[in-house]
Amino acid sequence: MINLPSIIQGGMGVGVSNWQLAAAVARRGQLGVVSGTAISHVVANRLFEGDPAGHIRSALAEFPFQESARRMISRWFREGGPQPGEQLPSHPIYSITPPRFLDQITAMSNFVEVHLARRGHSGQVGLNLLEKIQLPTLASLYGAMLAGVDWVLMGAGIPTQVAGLLDKLSRHEAVSYRLDVKGAKPGPREEAISISFDPERIFPGIAARLGPLKRPRFVPIVSSVVLASALIKRSEGEVDGFVVELPVAGGHNAPPRGKMTLSEDGEPIYGPKDEVELDGMRALGKPFWLAGGYGRAGALTAAQTTGATGIQVGTAFALCHESGIRKELRMELLERVARGEADMKTSPVASPTGFPFKVAQLAGTMSDEAVYEARPRLCDVGMLRTLVQDDDGNVAYRCAAEPVEDYVAKGGRTEDTEGRRCLCNNLLSTAGVVKVQKNGYVEAPIVTIGDDFPLVRQFQTGEQQTGEQLSYSAGDVLRVLLA
Question: For position 259, which CATH number holds?
Answer without folding.
Answer: 3.20.20
